[in-house]
Amino acid sequence: MLNRPTQFDPATLVQHLWPLIVYGFAVLALIALMLGLSYFLGQRRRDAATDEPFESGIVSQGSAHVRLSINYYLVAILFIVFDLEAIYLFSWAIAFRQTGLLGFIEAAIFIVILLAGLIYLWRLGALDWGGKQQRNL
Amino acid sequence: MSARELHAILPLLILSGGILFLLLQVSFLRSHKAAAATAVITLIAAIAACFDVARTLSQSAAPIEVTGLLLIDQQALFFCLLFLLAALAIAVLGFSYLQKRCDSARESIPEAFYLLLLLVMLGAMALVFSNHFASVFLSMELMSLALYPMLGFAVTGDLSPRLEQMYSLESGVKYLLLSALSTALGLFGMALIYAACGALDFGGVAAAVANLPRTPSLLLSGLTLLLITLAFKLSLVPFHIWTPDVYQGAPSPVTALIATVGKGAVVALLLRLFTELELFSIPALTGLLAAASVASMLVGNLLALMQKNIKRLLAYSSIAHIGYLLVAFLIGNSAFGNEAVLYYLVAYVITTLGAFGAVGLIADSALARTAGSAGEYVYTTTSPFQRDFYRGLLWRSPWLAGCLAAMLLSLAGIPLTIGFIGKFYIFAAGIQGQLRLLLAAVVIGSAIGLFYYLRLLLTMVLREPQAPLDSIESVRIAVSGRLLLISLTGVLLIFGVFPQILIDWIYTL
Amino acid sequence: MTPFSTLPAIIAILFCGGILAWLSERYFNRGSRQISLISLSVAAALLATYWPHLTDSPTGVWWDSVQINWIPRFGISFSLAIDGLGFLMLALTVLMGLFGLVVTWRDIRFRRGFFYFNYLWTLAGVVGVFTAIDLFLFFFFWEVMLLPMLFLIAVWGYEERIPAAIKFFIFTQASSLLMLLAIVTLVYLHYSASGILTFNYRELLNAQLTPGNAYWLMLGFFIAFAVKLPALPLHTWLPDAHTQAPTAGSILLAAILLKTGAYGLLRFTLPLFPEASAAFAPVAMSIGAASIIYGALLAFAQQDMKRLVAYSSVSHMGFVLLGLYAMNTVAAQGAVMQMIAHGFSTAALFSLVGAIQKRLNSRDMAQLGGLWSSLPKLSATALFFAVASLGMPGLGNFIAEFLVLLGSFDSNHWITAIAATGLIGAALYALLMMQRVFFGGLRTPEDAQTRSPTDLKAREFLALISLAAGLLLLGLRPQVVFDIAQPAIARTGTLHKKAPTATSQISSPKLRLSAWPDTDHRRGNSP
C-alpha cells in the first residue's frame, strides 16, 4: 500500500509525461520522414527481378513455403521451456544469501520438478531426432 | 510459512506430488492401467486430505491464510471435494474412452491424459483457494493450459475415427485462441484494478474499495473486464460462442471435465470475489450479470431446441443452467444465496457428469462394435452423438437408458431428481431477492428446455427402432462405466428425494 | 403416530406393485396384470377401512393424518391427510384404476410390465395428490403422476403419440412451474409475516396476504389447475392427449387426472385465497361457461369418436369450474358430483371407443355405422353412457349438472343461462354419435379383418355394467355423496361467506421481507 498511486488525474499526468509524449511523436515523425523521403526521392523501376527476393545475387530456387519438419518446433519449444526456467534460477542466484536455506529448498524443489519433466521427455522420446520415437518402452 | 499453513494446502501438495510421481512413473513404466490407478489414488488421497483439513478448520473456525495468495476456508474445501469427486468420475470415463482408442503397441500415450487431468485439478483447486489476483491468474492459466491439449486429445488415440480427431483438434485450437483472448482482457482488468486500488490481494482491494468515496470508473472498467473473462469461462451469453463447438469436438470425458470442474471453479471464484470485495453493492456489475443470466437462459434454451447432436444440445443446456445458477448468485451477500449456489452447483455437476458420461460411454460402445479393418475405427451409419442413434434405446439397454433418462429429467428439473431441488432453490432465492424478471426468464427457459429434453427422452422410448442394423443389439459398456453411471443416478435420486442430507453436509463441512 | 398408517401404505403398495409388475414381467414374462390387480385390490381394501367414518359423524374435519419430517430446512414435511372430499376422490381413483385394468386386460402386448409399472405409478401419484396437505409434497406428487402418464401416451399411444405426449407434458409442466413459484412465494410471504417457515396447508390457510399479492398467487395456482381441468384457452393439449393415449391411458386421464385440477381448485385455490377468488369468480365462471359451449360445439364437429368424447370432457369439466366458482354450497356439491359422474361416464365411453377400435380398427365415424346389428351388447351399453353423458334424469350426471346450474344461477343469472344452453349441445353430440355409429345400415371400414366382429366379452360387459350401476346409484341416492363431501365443502363455503367482511377487517400486514432462515433456526432441529 506504500506505492499506491494518487487518484487518476489527467492534468498532472500530462505535466509529468510531456517529455515522453514529445519523444513518442518525434519517433513517429522521424519514421514518417524517412519513409516519405525515400518514397519521393527514390527511383522507381519495374523490372523482371524487382519482386524477387534478394539472395546475395543468386537467383532463388523453388518456393519459400517449405514444410519444416515438426521436430524443429519441438526442439524450439523445449529450448524455450527450459531456457525460461533458467531465468528464475538467475533471480534466485542473485538473492542467494538473502533467501537462505528456505530459498535453497524451494529452488531445489523447482529443479527437481524440471528434472522430472526432462526425464519424462527423454524417456518418451521427445529428445530423439527423426520422426516419432522409434523405441517402444 | 508455518506448519499449519503447509498442512492447510495439503490437498494441493498431494496433487503436485502425484503429478511428479506420475511423470516419473510414466517415464519408466508405460502402462495405461498403472497410470490410471496412480491418478485415482492421488485423487482419493487429495479427498482424504480435504477432509483432514476441514477437520482442523472446524476446530479453529477461522480460515487459514497461506502466504497471502491462498485462503483456505470451509466453503472452498467443499468446492474442492466436489471437484475431486468429479475428477474421479472423469478418470473412470477417460479410462473407458482411451482404452478403446489407444493401441498400446503403437505410438500413443494415453498416460498423458491423467497427467493433464491432475494438472487441471491443481489449477482448479488453486483457483478455488486463491485470495489474490496473482494466484487467480496463475491458477486460471494452469487450468486452461492443461485443458488445451486435453481438448485435442483424440489426436493421441491413434484408433480414433479420423473425423473425431479433426473435430477434437478444432475444439482445442478454438478454445486456445478464444481463451487466450479472454485471459488477456482479464489481465488488463486486473492491471486497471491495481491502478485504481494499489493492491492485488482481495483484502487490500476490498479496503481500497471501501475507502473510495464512490466507485471510480477505472476500477469499474477493471472489474468489468475481469467479469468478461469469468463470463467467458462460464460461457455466459454473449461470451458463449465457443461452447458448442468445443463441447462437441472434445473427447466426452474432457467435455464433462470442462463443463463441471472448469465452470464450477470459476463459480467458486466468482462467489469469493463478490463476497470479499463486496461487489454486490455495485449495481453496474450485478446489472451486467443479471443481463447475462437472462440472456443465457433464453438463448441457451432456444438454441438447444435446434440441435440434433446430443453433445451440442447438452452444451447449450449447460449455458442455460449457469444462467439459472446466477439467479441464486445475484440475490447478494446472504447465507441463503451461498447455500443455493452450492446446492445448484452440486446438482449441476452430478447431472452434467452423468449426462456427458452416459453419452460418451454409449459412443465408446458404438466404436467398439464397429471395429475397423486395419487402421482407425469408423462409426457405422450414424454418428453415436446424433439423436437418431438413441431411438428405442430404452428397449435395447434399459439400465443405461434409465440412467440417461434420470439425468435428462434432472436437467429439466422434474421431481425425484436433484435437479428439481436445485430449481426449487433457484425459485426460493429469486423470490427472496425479488428478482421478478429473472424468475420470469427461469420459468420461460425451463418451459422451453422441457421440449428438447423431452424429445430426446421420447426418442429413447420409440417403439420401432428404425435402424435395423446392428444397433438393435444392446449397448455394452464397461463395468466401471456402468457402476459410475448407476452410482451417479443413485446419488441424483437420493439427493432428490432426501435433500436434507446434502443440506446438512453443506453446513457441517 | 402409529407405525402403520393407511395413507402411506396405499401409496407404497401402488409404488411397490408397479415395480413388482415390471420385474415379474421382465423375469417371468407374465404376472404383471395379476400383480396390478392385487395391489389395486389391496389399496381398495385399505381405503375401505375408512368406511366407519362415512356413517358416524366425523369428530374432526380430517379423518386421518400422517406427518413425518422430510426437509426440515424448509419446514417441509411428508404429511398426508384424508377427509370426505379426499375419500371420494381416492375411491374414484382406485375404482377407475381397477376398471381401466379390467376393461383393457388383453389390450397391451408390447412391454406389458413397463406399462403396468407406469399405470400403477400414475395412480400412486394421483393418490398422493389427493391426500397431500403439505404444499411441497402436493407439488411433488403432482409431478410424479405426470411422468408415467407421459410414458403411457408416448409408448403405447396411437399414430400421433409423440407430439401429443410432448404437448401434454409441456402444458402441464410449464403451468405447474407457475404453481411452484406461487407456492414458494406464498410460503415466503407467510414466513416474512409470521416468522414460521412451513409448507403445511393447514398453517398456510392463516396466511395474511395483501390483496394484490393474493391475486397474483391465486392466478399462479389457478392457471396450473385450469390447464389440468382443462379450461378454455388452455385446453388444447387435451384432445390430442386423449385421442392418442391407449384406452387405459385415456381412462386414467379423463376419469382421474382431470379431477386433480378440480380438486386443486377446491382444496387449495379457493380456501387459500378466498378474497382473491371471490374477485376472480366472474372471470372463472365465464371461462367455465365458455368451456361448456365450446366443448359441446367442437364435440359436435368431430369425425373421430375419441376426439368427440375428449371434447365432451372439456364441456363437462366446464360445469365443474362453473360450480366451484359459483361460491355456494349447492353448486360446489354439484361440482363434486360432476367430478365423480363424469369420471364414470367418460371412462366407460373411452373404453367403448377403445373396444370398437380394437374390433374394427377404426374410430372414424365416417367409416362406421349400424353397429347395433352386429354388436348389440356393446351398442346398448354405449347408448346408456351416451344418454348419461347428455344428462338424463335419474343418472349421476343429471344431478350434478342440475345442482351446478341451480347454484350458479344464484350468483350470476346471465352466465348460468348461457351455460345451460350447453346442455342442448350435449344432447346433440351424444345422440349424433349414437345415430352415426350404431344406427342405420351396417358400415365397417374396408380394412377391418372381419365383417362380423365379436361382441363385448363377459369381462368387459361386467365392468361396464358395474359402472352403469354406479351411475344409477349416484342418480338415485346422491345424498350419500353429499353427506361425505359436506364438511370439506362447508369449510370452503364458510370462508366464502366470511370473505367480504374479512377484507375490511384485515389491516394489511406490514410485510417484513426477510431472508430465508439459516439452518440454525430451522424447525424440528431441537435436540
Automatic annotation (TrEMBL), chain A:
UniProt GO cellular component terms = NADH dehydrogenase complex; plasma membrane
Q: Membrane topology for this entry?
A: Multi-pass membrane protein
- Using the record, list the residue span of the signal peptide; answer none if the entry has no such feature: none
Q: Name one Pfam family in it.
A: Oxidored_q4
Localization of this protein: Cell membrane; Membrane
Which molecular-function annotation in GO is an example for this chain?
Answer: NADH dehydrogenase (quinone) (non-electrogenic) activity
Q: Alphabetically list the UniProt keywords.
A: Cell membrane, Membrane, NAD, Oxidoreductase, Quinone, Translocase, Transmembrane, Transmembrane helix, Transport, Ubiquinone
Q: Does the keyword Chloroplast apply?
A: no
- HAMAP family per record: NDH1_NuoA (MF_01394)
Assembly, in brief, is: NDH-1 is composed of 14 different subunits. Subunits NuoA, H, J, K, L, M, N constitute the membrane sector of the complex.
Protein name, please? NADH-quinone oxidoreductase subunit A
Origin species: Microbulbifer thermotolerans
